[in-house]
What we know:
Layout: E1 2-13, E2 16-27, E3 31-35, H1 42-49, E4 57-62, E5 65-70, E6 77-79, H2 82-91, E7 92-95, H3 107-117, H4 123-136, H5 152-164, E8 170-174, H6 182-197, E9 202-205, H7 209-215, E10 218-223, E11 226-231, H8 233-238, H9 243-249
Parallel strand pairs: 3-9, 3-10, 7-8, 8-9
Antiparallel strand pairs: 1-2, 1-4, 4-5, 5-6, 10-11
Amino acid sequence: MEILSVKNLCKSFQHNKVLNDISLTVSQGEVLAIIGPSGSGKSTLLRCINQFETVDSGEINVCGQRMVHTDAETGNAVYADKGTLRRIRLMIGLVFQNFNLFPHFTVLRNITEAPVSVLGKSRAEAEEKARELLKKMGLSEKENAYPYQLSGGQQQRVSIARAMALSPKILFFDEPTSALDPELTGEILKVIRSLAEEHMTMVIVTHEMLFAREVADRVIFMDGGIIIEEGSPEQVFDAPLEERTKQFLLRYSGLGDH
């Protein structure tokens, strides 16, 4: 089953075209890794899918619900009604690179706030689910702590639990380890790896090449707002077809030098 479909997506800031005719699909249970240099459009793509940015043209469908399409006459993007956009938003989870936790809420409340206020769940039901997720993240003893009392790695695990609390159909990660010290990166990658083993549908923008190679079912390499190359991790990392992909991967030890 196709969870996400993006067709001919274009997005400009002023006169700078950040996304230029991007098309991709993600199937249920699939893990897609998006790699590429800074400024290649990776994070903008995630922000457009998650409705933090509006697109200029193109089409996005999530679980068969159309978020946006291009008007045939004007060539402009036309968004779905508010109800449809809200339903789509609830199908999507996004884990930010800088955690974005509420500093004045405890860990437990950070995770339960959306299920209670957005989904209308009872506080008891939301807390039960939150405690299950905290146990999964290895943070059961931290439910009454505040974000400032946690390490960066612990904060990122809480933000993953918060995204999972809404039971999304697809989970997006925007550079989930970029704000962390190297020794804390491993614990986040371990969590994402465990989600992949449970067949969680995920799109991961990352600079962690070895991790992308290990956990992804498919890899997309972006540069200059376009998809340069797409394929299995083995194909993209071991036998890239495009010269630009080869140049990019040469920067990473042990990759792209075959």
